[in-house]
Amino acid sequence: MTAILLLAGCLDSGGKTARESQEYGGKGKQPAWDFKYDPPITITTAIVDENRPNAFKPGESLTDNVHTRWMEDNLGIITKFDWIVSKFEDADTKIRLALTMNGKLPDTFNAEGDILKNLLKADRLLPLNDAIEQLAHPKLKAALEKYAYTMTEVTKDGKIYGLPRLGAGDEGTVMWIRKDWLGKLSLNPPETIDELENVLKAFSEQDPNGNGQDDEVGLAVPLKEGPWSWMGQTDPIAGAFSGQMLCTSDIKLFWNDDGNGGLVYGAVHPDAKKYLETMASWMAKGYIDRDAGMKDSSKAAELAVKGMAGVMFGPFWMGAWPLGDTVKSDPEADWQAYPLPAGPDGLKGKAQKPLYGIYTVFSKDFKNIEAWFAYYNKLLAKNFGPQDPYFDPRFALGYHEGYDYVIKDGKVITVNFASEGVPSAQWPLADGSSIDMRWMLYPLTGGAPVLPYMSTDAIRKLSERSDAEMSTPIEQSIKGLNSAQLAAAGIAVAEQELEIPNRYHGPLTDGMEKNGVFLQKLATESYVSIIYGEKPLSYFDEFVAQFYKNGGDVITREVNDWYEDNKP
């Protein structure tokens, strides 16, 4: 007998539950979080194992760890991996093979781009309209209604075939600067692009790290994938000159208002010249690392952490990692966040972090969608605290004692175990760090369930009153930020109105599928060549012509056809 969650009685699965006489809501009835499948059910999935350090304790693995055992013992859900691969392209290959050979797909997995498009064409995915209406957490449903555009890519003939992996959104770019270097060189925090250039010049030429060597640059930036990345991005430089946001590494980012009721790919808009001119000037003057074109976000951050760069743009959380590690090489290091610099006309702007990207999808043959939602709702409710009907009190202190937290003298401790006096035998890992719970907790959801801007109110609350009572888990997590992070979060929230969104939310078009990879490579290489001075600024016009000649014109038509039908 297949056991199903009592809350899903409205979906006819033809099974029974051990608690089928109890229903959610009302006095004496079963709380929403309390369920168990008896006998247990198995949900298959797939994962890209990037072999992160600190992901598991010795002897544990993706397939056998404290959380998989907890799920089976407490929820009656067994997780089985149909495949575990080390590269995202290998996961794509697995799905392509399943489509080509009409093979079995996992019950739930992640998909995007052409893979998602082909899954929809092949009619291999489960429609979710009824499940969302009847099973989804009310806050998730509200978010999907508010940000309905996040589902256009998985909507076909009025049916929804996937759930967007929603992003927090509230980690938009701030300007991080070594405050101690400003003081050492008698500089004020820059408020304009011109003032920022003066700071970059001083940081590059006046030996602020004091080692007597000419080993500093002003700006740490990754240019390996162009001007847009997850950390170290230079969108505020573009935003100081124009409302056009730039991305060369993704043909779907950023499509901006062209001023005539349509959309234009920002990387080919004439305003991009102002960004390129500035970056090329800074590179020529030595204010940017000459190896930036070979560095991704993490490598660029290493330059800052090693005390060899004094400015870096990025999210508010950088105040802990990676910038917090700078004190290991310089105990006096003090990174602080500042408002974005204004351009010559007073303009400021930054890119809105995409609120979605990859999708969680389900095989058309999946029979236990109610179980997936039950688990997702439980993880999402962890953010909102005991007042949420789906909040599991077993997670009140954390997920698993000895993994993401320990208790000493009645106090819950999540970091700095040694300084808090926790005996080393009780540390989650021998090096004193916590387990990286991202791998362990989310095998069925693909990541931590969050909702757009769900931390904004908590950030504002604590920014306005440092002694404000923080009660919900979201508020407590914000209170747990270090002082640099909290100040940066306050600046990020205060400047949210500067965010410029991507305006294309449609599927990967035929033109994108055919020419997107080539155009991304063309755009990134052209930008890097201009910034490095290998090509003159005038080369931009040749690049634009090549962009449109090699499929950009078709893609622009496709995007604008979609926009005409989907304008807000």
TrEMBL record:
Keyword tags: Signal
Highest rank taxon of the organism: Bacteria
InterPro entries: Bact_solute-bd_prot1
Protein name from the UniProt record: ABC transporter substrate-binding protein
